[in-house]
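To the wet lab folks,

You asked to see what we're planning to order before we commit. Fair enough. Below is the target structure as tokens, and below that is the sequence we designed to fit it. If anything looks off to you, flag it before the synthesis order goes out.
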């Protein structure tokens, strides 16, 4: 047996140094349901195998989201949004909310959004190619931010502020910064909602404000409350901005570090893009872990879990599970099948998964049209988060065709 590493998945340096992969690989092989102490003394379970992670996602009755869905959450903040914000709710409220919120991101809406996404991507890639050496994160953050702001019909002059504040809300250096940024976003959307409620606009906020959700009373429905709309606008912003930014940047790095895969993608052309999108999502997996709270006695892989136990499921580990993915630690653009869980699974499958796939598809299409070669110009740097993780600096040159 390989010597056990020090397992501290709350250590920021483990993620900023990009060294957590070996720890998770050891846990998968030797301790797939691992008890992890923490500074608060409460501790939590760490689940790292693909089948176990998907089983937790599928069992909302045993593993609840309403008490918080990530390590380090502020209990008071979670309590304020529980059962009103999609990511910290359980059925039936989760089901009722998702039916309303998902309509803007449904399959029938993607053709309407494709033109918008293509215009945004062409503009930012053209600027990046012309600029020469760039920090690609400056490019990657623009694509999802511009798209989601346009979907919400936010004033153009607010887009840059919205992107910065959303990042601060989830990745700020301390709790005061994160809480302050969340409050700013809540106030911003509260003001917009007051302007748009009762209107006939086709933007996300207007549509959600006039749609109706089911209730626990049969055959009765109601409008969403102001709080439900504001909280979930915040959630949509975060999901759209963080995931796609990190996946796009991580995909560019993977293609730069694996020139054979860039050649494979170029040779395959448009037909090769769908598989490449899925592999980029598997490889980058920005949503590192999700937290659940045990609500009734349960067992995972023979390990009994008690009511009130906290359990973390590690998407980033499941996507490298050797039992599911052949050559799991290789980036392979034509990998198939590819049953990754970058967007979660079950009821908590990410609301914006289709939009994220559309953005990555269009991005790769434009990249193939415009770029001959991707050159690294410096050392990539990563953020220090064990929740939403990815590159924070990527110096590259996109060599034009």
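Sequence we intend to order:
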């Amino acid at each position: 047996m390989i010597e056990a590493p020090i397992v501290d998945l709350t250590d920021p340096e483990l993620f900023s140094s990009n060294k957590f992969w070996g720890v998770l690989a050891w846990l998968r092989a030797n301790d797939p349901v691992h008890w992890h102490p923490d500074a608060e003394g409460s501790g939590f379970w760490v689940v790292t195998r693909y089948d176990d992670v998907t089983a937790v996602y599928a069992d909302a009755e045993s593993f609840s989201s309403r008490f918080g869905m990530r390590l380090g959450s502020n209990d008071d903040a979670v309590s304020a949004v529980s059962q009103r914000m999609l990511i910290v709710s359980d059925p039936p409220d989760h089901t009722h909310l998702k039916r309303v919120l998902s309509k803007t991101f449904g399959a029938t809406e993607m053709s309407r959004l494709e033109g918008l996404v293509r215009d945004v991507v062409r503009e930012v890639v053209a600027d990046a190619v012309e600029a020469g050496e760039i920090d690609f994160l400056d490019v990657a953050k623009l694509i999802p931010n511009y798209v989601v702001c346009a979907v919400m019909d936010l004033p153009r002059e607010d887009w840059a502020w919205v992107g910065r504040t959303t990042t601060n809300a989830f990745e700020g250096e301390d709790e005061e910064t994160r809480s302050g940024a969340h409050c700013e976003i809540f106030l911003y959307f509260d003001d917009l909602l007051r302007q748009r409620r009762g209107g006939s606009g086709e933007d996300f906020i207007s549509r959600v404000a006039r749609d109706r959700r089911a209730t626990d009373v049969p055959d009765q429905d109601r409008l969403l409350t102001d709080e439900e709309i504001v909280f979930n606008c915040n959630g949509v912003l975060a999901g759209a901005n963080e995931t796609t930014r990190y996946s796009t940047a991580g995909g560019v790095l993977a293609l730069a570090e694996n020139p054979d895969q860039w050649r494979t993608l170029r040779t395959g052309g448009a037909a090769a893009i769908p598989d490449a999108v899925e592999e980029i999502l598997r490889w980058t997996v920005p949503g590192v872990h999700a937290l659940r709270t045990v609500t009734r006695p349960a067992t995972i892989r023979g390990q009994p879990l008690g009511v009130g136990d906290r359990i973390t499921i590690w998407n980033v580990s499941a996507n490298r599970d050797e039992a599911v993915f052949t050559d799991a630690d290789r980036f392979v653009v034509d990998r198939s099948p590819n049953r990754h869980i970058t967007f979660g699974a079950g009821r908590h499958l990410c609301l914006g998964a289709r939009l994220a796939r559309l953005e990555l598809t269009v991005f790769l299409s434009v990249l193939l049209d415009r770029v001959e070669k991707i050159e690294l110009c410096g050392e990539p740097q990563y953020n220090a988060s064990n929740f939403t993780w990815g590159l924070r600096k990527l110096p590259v040159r996109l060599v034009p065709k």
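Structural context that might help your review: The chain is about 50% helix and 15% strand. The chain has a mean pLDDT of 93.

Thanks,
Computational group
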